[in-house]
Fold this sequence. Notes:
Layout: E1 2-7, E2 10-15, E3 22-26, E4 29-33, E5 37-45, E6 53-57, E7 63-68, E8 72-74, E9 77-86, E10 90-98, E11 101-115, E12 119-123, E13 127-135, E14 144-147, E15 153-158, E16 161-166, E17 170-178, E18 181-191, E19 194-197, E20 207-209, E21 217-225, E22 236-238, E23 246-250, E24 258-264, E25 274-281, E26 288-298, H1 314-323, E27 328-332, E28 339-342, E29 352-356, H2 376-394, H3 426-431, H4 448-456, E30 471-472
Parallel strand pairs: 4-11, 12-18, 20-26, 26-30, 27-29
Antiparallel strand pairs: 1-2, 3-5, 5-9, 6-10, 7-9, 8-9, 10-11, 11-13, 13-16, 14-17, 15-16, 17-18, 19-21, 21-24, 22-25, 23-24, 25-26, 28-29
Helix pairs in contact: 1-2, 2-4
Amino acid sequence: MRAKLTIGGKTVSASRSVNIIGIDFTPSTLYVRANGERPAGALITPGNYWSSVGFASGNTDIAKIEYISPPLVGPGSTYRYIKVGGAGTGSTYIYARVSGTNFDSMRVNVIDVSFNLSTLYLGKSQTGLVGVNVNPISYAYSVYFKSTNTSIATVSGSYPTITIYGKASGTATIRAYIGDRYFASMTVNVVDVRIIEPNDVPATDNNFDFNSAFIGVCDVNANGTSGISSENSNLTWSIPAIVGSSLSSIPSPPQGPSITFRYTSLPFNNNQFGNKTLSLSHPLTGDSDSQIVQIFYLRDATNHPGAGSGTTPNWYYYWSQITGTGNLAYGGAHASWLGYYDFDGSAGHLDKCIIYNNVTTIGNDDEGGGYGPPGIDSFGQTVIHERKHRDQFFQSGYPDTDGDGIPNYPGPFTIGQDTDGDWLSDSYEDDFGFDKSMQDTDGDGLKDLEEEPEAAEAGWPQNSHNNEDWANPGKNSSK
Length: 479
């Protein structure tokens, strides 16, 4: 341009050049994470002046210029890419300068947003509260929150506490945003703890037996999932102890997706068998699952503890705990009998109610009672039956000729003692309404001797002790 100047009272003409330069920041306001970086740009027009333009931070304790790119020259303009780093928290400006003069500025807000948890663990359908920190606090209510996967976890709320909801197993990220920029993130692991096996399919899938070894072992095998493979190693298993049996696990401690619980040695008491609750949980969430398993002994094995171990079968040892062991004896095999009261010791068990193996295979209906199928019902009714015979014998009034405290039977058809030879004494039949001159007073085909024992069997109704039968095979072994 040209101008007239007055110098020393004289007017002279002078000339100088004027450069018009345009500089525009994009964006006009930049939000940066504390200790983070954010890009911005400056458009310089005309482009050939790019080398005259410099950039500076108004407060390097808040924001620093980390990088300035080489010029990107375009038609009529040049673009410079800059990277701004957050050094502290607060607000300042980035200036574009030419020869020390500010041509344009960009506001920089450096904000620190953080969660009080880096990772939150939830069970499916559980909720969790998470604290949020914002500095400067003046920006607290500009912060909003989003989940990267709302099918796994959703979020609601605002500073200073948000609520996160578990929806389905998996991993999602919760992010804290100001504008279109997220300033903090945290991980949400949602677990859905499930026992996969055993699962009652088939019905016997949950049944586990002690084996027949001298020191019996019962292995309970199971596997499960948290729904997140990386979390399966944190799963924790438990199962109740059995009194009289030692409990161990593989692995030990019982953690991970698969487990074998081992009971070693059969218990002394029948009530230690049966239902046990197998549990699986994720310790960081409390989410859990459980399954009922059933513990059995092998019916015909002989590896029970206590008296008769290695000789008497398990069924006799455990079932006799239900009936009581008084005046009982195990008789082994017999051609056809279920039991027998040995009143004279001829069967080798004087004054004992002998129980034979046939109770496990023959129902207690040989005398027409029709009450008990093979197994625990046949056993229980046979015990009642033979004990009634013992009661009859001790109430007979027969003399104790040898002084051993047990009556001595004089023999059948002994006039005045057992006239009809039915093993009931004449005095007993008189007292209890039987005809001592005939063996079947009521003519029903059942001898007088058997009438009362058969009736007594009703004291053990069929299926009345199913919940105490943990033999395999037995009442519960097929369920």
